[in-house]
Write a structure and sequence with these properties.
With 531 residues, this protein is of the alpha/beta class. It has 16 helices and 27 strands. 29% of the residues lie in helices and 25% in strands.
Length: 531
């Protein structure tokens, strides 16, 4: 651990040189998505990828950092900002129980809930909270009767050298539209601002001087855009509101007094902490999938209990755990391996070959086209629609295995079908022209798209299988269960009666790759933007 130990004199120097200052080191993760098995960093080098991340490497880093902080007379906490399990075989095979067992072994101090922690219902999220040896904090998740579920707590207060510090958890209230709503029956997500203000008051009343938010609201990489919108609303004398959840840039404008925010939900790591110019709240956020860890050190005034400064002891706010620089904890490695052997049985069987990378992207993209084509091929439907957010990785060039496909499509979706008229199909697909991750990954359908026209009228010259769409004809339309149940703005689909096709999305794509291998990317747009 020479790389980490080299910074110990820096920590000691800081601790000895500032009287009256308490140093709180916050190590943090977010959006692990079951990524406790090490992986190849194909995003760094697709042909010769270095090893990166994994639960054993993270554990070793944390244990050494904790030792150093103790020797330096400083305090340390390990925090996660939600979405711990959905996304890998190890994370999904027991709905996150193995990931919680790993977090217990590493010594997490707390976590908040992310939207994907509810993917198999509220009871799964709460049962995982019971398994945790640490508090699960969330201030805006309640029963329908307005009570905090007994398995969680809105906040915790910890004492660091006499400075009482409150950690308050928040999850995105958009969760209700991001998961199957049946699994949330009996529970509600409350307003993030009102909930936070309520528990800040309670924490202050209990003696907390410093407020730290552990937030699954997300920190955008372009926070200035959102600050301009907030300030513009205020200049007009209006309250700033949105029809979906606030992000942390906006929230820290609306709620003063937050010393720091440990953020998750948006998988974009911040190279350095962002400080809100209005409220001076410090925001940090790491990349996801277990590839690394964030490290923020707060300087707390021992007299006032307030944050007087911060730094990043490793230089960067986020440390990628590259295997050439760090090595694993052997005990935790054995634990993770025991989970992996069960969860990944048969995952490395090669089913085909990709002649080139099949990339994903921000809007319509080659992997989305391939997935939609597979859905239509398997079901015999006229039109297939895949949701962009359900595709989490590209397919690299080379051999394609079940692991490859699972990495790209981790959500184990069922494919559902609808019988609709052409007019109804057009109305459904117009939803995909309205932004907010509704961009269409489509098969069997082509059109021009005029974004200058009003909502509901942007599709021009719609074609089904190369033939002009007939408003009066009937078509079979298939999509994922996620969209069929009305997620990400597709509430229109809840007005139709779908049926289960009997096909699973991942298995469908595997069969498609087997059938049509070798595969290659299709870069031809199916929705042609003309404005």
């Amino acid at each position: 651990m020479a790389v980490i130990r080299a910074m110990l004199p820096v920590l000691l120097l800081a601790a000895l040189s500032r009287g009256g200052t308490v140093y709180l080191n916050i190590l943090h993760t977010n959006d692990i998505h079951g990524g406790i098995v090490e992986r190849d960093a194909t995003f760094l080098n697709p042909d010769f990828p270095p090893g990166v991340g994994g639960g054993a490497w993270l554990a070793s880093f944390v244990h050494e950092a904790r030792r150093q902080c103790e020797e330096a007379g400083e305090f340390m906490v390990l925090v996660d900002a939600g979405d711990i399990w959905q996304g890998t075989p190890v994370g999904g095979f027991d709905s996150g129980a193995s990931v919680v067992a790993w977090m217990n072994a590493v010594g997490y101090d707390m976590m908040t809930l992310g939207n994907h922690d509810f993917d198999r219902g509220a009871e799964t999220a709460l049962s995982n909270a019971v398994l945790a040896d640490f508090p699960v904090i969330c201030a805006n998740f309640e029963t329908s009767e307005g009570a905090v579920p007994r398995e969680i707590t809105p906040f915790v207060i910890m004492d660091f050298g006499g400075v009482k510090t409150a950690f308050i958890g928040l999850t995105t209230p958009d969760t209700r539209s991001l998961v199957d709503e049946e699994g949330l029956e009996g529970y509600v997500f409350t307003d993030e601002v009102l909930s936070l203000e309520r528990y800040i008051d309670e924490a202050r009343g209990a003696g907390a001087g410093t407020i730290i938010l552990v937030s699954h609201l997300g920190q955008p990489p372009d926070p200035g855009v959102y600050l301009e919108r907030v300030f513009a609303a205020w200049e007009r004398g209006e309250e700033y509101t949105k029809n979906f959840a606030l992000n942390n840039a906006e929230l820290t404008c609306m709620v003063p007094g937050i010393g720091a925010v440990i953020s998750g939900h948006i998988h974009v790591g911040l190279p350095e902490p962002w400080v809100n110019p209005l409220t001076h709240s410090i925001v940090v956020q790491g990349y996801g999938n277990g590839t690394g860890i964030g490290w923020l050190r707060l300087w707390l005034d021992s007299a006032t209990g307030t944050v007087t400064g911060f730094d990043c002891p490793m230089g960067d706010a986020y440390i990628s755990l590259l295997h050439e620089q760090f090595w694993p904890d052997s005990t935790v490695a054995s634990l993770v391996e025991s989970f992996r052997q069960i969860a990944e049985a048969g995952m490395d069987e090669v089913v085909g070959e990709a002649l080139a990378e099949i990339p994903r992207g921000a809007a319509e993209h080659p992997l989305g086209r391939l997935v939609a084509d597979a859905m239509r091929w398997r079901t015999g439907a006229d039109v297939a629609l895949m949701n962009r957010g359900g595709i989490r990785a590209s397919i690299p060039r080379g051999s394609v295995s079940a692991r490859t496909v699972y990495t790209a499509l981790p959500f184990e979706e069922d494919i559902l079908a609808f019988r609709v008229t052409g007019a109804e199909l057009l109305e459904i697909l117009e939803t995909g022209m309205q932004g907010r991750r509704r961009d269409m990954q489509i098969s069997g359908f082509t059109c021009d798209r005029d974004q200058s026209r009003p909502d509901g009228s942007r599709i021009i010259e719609p074609m089904v299988d190369g033939v002009p769409l007939d408003p009066d004809s009937e078509y079979t339309f298939v999509t994922t269960g996620y969209l069929a149940y009305g997620s990400v703005g597709y509430g229109i689909l809840t007005g139709f009666e779908p049926w289960h096709t009997g096909f699973n999305l991942m298995e469908t794509v595997l069969e498609y790759v087997k059938e049509f291998s070798p595969i290659e990317p299709d870069y031809r747009d199916r929705v042609n933007w003309i404005q």
